[in-house]
Amino acid sequence: MKHLFLAPRFYYVMTALIAAMMLSYPFPYLLPFAQTAIILFAVVTAIDILILFGKSVNIIVSRDVPQVLSLGDDNEIAIEVQSKSTLRLHSELIDELPEQFQKRDFSRRFILSPNETHIEKYTLRPLTRGEYAFGKTHLFVRSVLQLVQRRITTDADINVPVYPSIIQMKKYEIRAFERSSNEYGVKKMRRIGHSYEFEHIKHYIRGDDYRSINWKATGRRASLMVNQYEDEKSQPIYCVIDKSRVMHMPFNGLSLFDYAVNTALVISNIVLSKQDKAGLITFAETPKSLVKAERSKSQLKKIIEALYREKEGVVEANYESLYMATQKYISGRCLMLLFTNFDSTYALHRVLPQLQKLNDKHLLVVVFFENSEVTQQASADVKSLEDVYTQVTAEQFALTKVQLVQELRQAGIMSILTRPEALTISTINKYLEVKSRGMI
Predict the structure, then answer these.
(1) DSSP-derived secondary structure for 126-139
(2) Using N-to-C axis directions, what is the helix angle for 345-361 and 319-329, rounded to 10°?
(3) Phi/psi of residue 246, nearest 5 degrees
């Protein structure tokens, strides 16, 4: 009986019968009709119960959840309801979602035809890394009478980890190798110089570097021939993520740290696909995680596991400890993509000496964030004096970010100022540009 529930129609009919019984007091001739209706209602309810709990109702419910959910992406969940019944059933599906979503009213209604397989799909967008516990799946079915309903429950409690975005990693891996793609996003940079790994000789086309002309081959073919070079391989690339309190700022539900984590995974995958070595460093007051740059088959898994365990810190970042760690663990020159955030010139000046030391030893690219909400406020319509003050403040804040880029450039340090949602694309473009220019 624990799977038997009364449907809304049952209460509507009972309300009408109770009203009829109450009216039979001032109108006694209604009493026989009300009593007969109650008996008929009890019989029909009993028949409805026998129909729902009989052998004619046979339903199998299963839930298909990815083995890993991607942080900040829409992950598709599918629930399959397979009916082996001969009846047409009114159904309501309720899934117990993980507590992180704080959603307790999830339900879907549909009609389940005889011998039909119905697939109900929905998406979830997790905003924090960690383990998500899915509860049971409940299916409530009602016959055509719709007086009672039967609950069919699947004991499918499962725990699913939420990792840095696997979906973005696969998407941008494809775009990075689409050499002819013209859509917005990853772009092919024009080669300014060339590396030193010879690939083959080809005919000269407009735009090729004239310094690569092979004069001997040109003389034999009587047409201009140029040497084609490929990018050097096995270059160490490190993603360095600041996990101090400056990375707590949220945009569209994700913190700046989570945006950096997703981008670090995407970049690491592309780096390994380009035959370079990928590594990872996270730091706050001290270095936290350090994955040495390698090109092994298990390297991407090491980076994913390290990113999965990371949490934001609550202290200031110590760039001196970062520099000492790089001196100790990194041998040779490498490309460092430093994900951090600066809101004032004072914050940059405080760490600029350490950044210059890192740039002297390695090729440093500082990636920090534009406050997109402030930028929108700077271009908003002005309707009052208060709006004028707000807009001027926003413009000053946006100008400070541009000044930070100029100061880094004067110090000889490359930088990327980007909106959080465009972080991945901007970083990939910078990596491909550095590769194409043979700077590492």
Answers:
(1) --S-EEEEE--EEE
(2) 10
(3) -70, -15
pTM here is 0.78
3-state secondary structure of 106: coil
| Domain 166-187+232-436 class in CATH | alpha beta
Residue 98 above 80 pLDDT? yes
Rounded to whole angstroms, how far apart are CA atoms 350 and 337?
19
What's 37's DSSP letter?
A: H
Percent of the chain exceeding pLDDT 90 equals 58
Output DSSP code: residue 413: -
Q: How far is CA 58 from CA 116, 191, 438, in A?
A: 11, 65, 66
Domain positions in the chain are 1-163, 166-187+232-436, 197-230
| 63, 137 Cβ separation under 8 angstroms | yes
pLDDT of residue 117: 93
Instruction: Give the whole-angstrom CA distance, residue 426 versus residue 266.
Output: 12
Distances (CA, A) of 181 to 116, 168, 191, 428: 43, 17, 17, 15
Between CA 294 and CA 314 the distance in angstroms is 30
Q: What topology does CATH give the domain 1-163?
A: Immunoglobulin-like (2.60.40)
Alpha helices in 274-412 (DSSP H): 299-309, 319-329, 345-361, 372-378, 385-410
Residue 112 and residue 86: Cα distance in Å, rounded? 10
